[in-house]
């Protein structure tokens, strides 16, 4: 459960997947109305495969499909859709995120503003374990 929570952190999705997953493979290249997209499957030990749908032109993650393992080892399918990407200090950030699964329905998160270079108390932050 702890590993699953860590893999769901934005730092993982928008960082270097190789540091957190045991394997990664592009399983398909598809065309749609927006252009070409890559289907990337990543795997971590003892967890279901996670699929990233990536815009081939921009590198933006359009969607993440996976499953959350429940305490009784039942896989609950999940889907996260990212959209409304905007550039903030040179980094493209999705300003709209829709997370859904059968247990909770859909949760929509919309960013209104992103501020950078703010003072923060370092005690508020701890390193995220890789396992």
Strand content: over 45%
- How does the major sheet shape up? 7 strands, antiparallel
DSSP helix count? 2
Query: What order do the helices and strands follow?
Result: HHEEEEEEE
Report helical residue fraction: under 10%
Radius of gyration: 16 Å
Shape, principal axes of CA atoms: globular
Overall pLDDT level: 86
Give me the oligomer status.
Answer: single chain
End-to-end separation in angstroms reads 11 Å
Structural class: mainly beta
Q: Give me the count of strands.
A: 7
Provide an overview of this structure:
The protein has two helices and seven strands. It is mainly beta. The protein starts with a helix and ends in a 21-residue tail after the last strand.
Keywords, separated by commas or semicolons:
131 residues, seven-stranded antiparallel β-sheet, globular
